[in-house]
Amino acid sequence: MTTPNDALAWMYRTMATSRRFEERIRDIYLEGKTPRFNMADGPIPGEMHLSNGQEPCAVGVCAHLGPEDFVTATHRPHHVAIAKGVDLNSMAAEIFGKATGLSGGRGGHMHLFDPAVNFCCSGIIAQGMGPAVGAALAFRMRREPHVAVAYVGEAAVNQGAWHEAMNLAAVWKLPFICIVEDNGWGISVPKSGSTAVPDNAVRAAAYGMPGVRVADNDPITVFDAAGDAVRRARSGQGPTLIEVETFRLEGHFMGDAEAYRPSGEKEAQASRDPLPRLKEHILREQILSAEELAEIDEGARSLVEDAIGFARASELPAPESALTSVYVERVAA
Ligand SMILES: Cc1ncc(C[n+]2csc(CCOP(=O)(O)OP(=O)(O)O)c2C)c(N)n1
What we know:
This protein is an alpha/beta fold and 333 residues long. The chain has a single domain (5-321), classed as Thiamin diphosphate (ThDP)-binding fold, Pyr/PP domains (Rossmann fold). The protein has 12 helices and 9 strands. It has helices at residues 5-30, 55-62, 78-84, 88-95, 129-141, 160-171, 191-194, 204-207, 219-234, 265-270, 274-284, 290-313; strands spanning 70-73, 113-114, 119-121, 148-153, 176-182, 185-186, 189-190, 211-214, 240-245. The strands form 2 sheets. It has a 7-stranded mixed β-sheet, with helices on both faces. Helix 9 links the parallel strand 8 and strand 9. The longest helix is centred in the N-terminal third of the chain and has 26 residues, at 5-30. It is globular and about 55 Å long. The structure holds thiamine diphosphate. Thiamine diphosphate (TPP) is lined by residues 74-76, 123-125, 153-156, 183, 185-187, 252.
């Protein structure tokens, strides 16, 4: 299958934006956290899970989706949020805990909610399965031609919620797609330590849906596999499981010493970085010129700088708003 040129250009621009965003967040996250690493310090407090390297999983799927389609992502959500079209300024502000953030600064980087583009994510692994299958059921009941997608990591597929949602999606033949981002590690546990079968796509048969393994961290291969699944879902043929063999170029979280990684693994993965690979493909096939690609890179940089400037300049939530949107039990005096 040939990937249309406009889709390739969009995937490159989106990957470049996500990469730049993550690189800037990585640097800013360490402000105020050196020499003593305390997660509560600095302009970005709390845990931070970066997705550098995993961008093909985001763009290859989201290239087929519109704002009406529903996506749930994981605790490692930035690449998917950007590909789904979440507003970068509000997303950056949320990560900085600012009042102008998507959730008024109360959610942080693992809890980004944007109803404008039907995107959400959660720090609880496999938590997005139920909401995504629920959205798929709603689309079916309203006779709307939309698709719901849940992203999970390869370690999260052993959560009870995953099995229950997979089963219902297949029994009801819902317009649902599960994307398993197999980066090989669940924190420091290798895939073989959490799952007995090396290929999660074979588990799809147990639910009665097609399972596909994309064995290359490549946006074009993901785009092809996701295109088939989205067409199946939109035409009423039911759900699909897609597992993508990807990798994270960073630790599990910022501050991870990564002592569990076999020597040479990170270097080998860096040499297969999907972003320069896509750039080379675009140049080789003469889809865009070097100048056009440089312009896209520059555009990504300025978009990210604007978002970070907006986040830095925004106010923290007012102290008196601490209980807004929080369930408070009123005790009778
Ligand atoms: C229900 C639940 N149990 C445990 C955790 C702690 N936890 C956070 S990330 C993680 C591993 C996730 O691995 P994987 O699903 O492969 O995603 P990755 O981090 O590799 O992207 C765990 C166990 C959690 N967030 N939620």
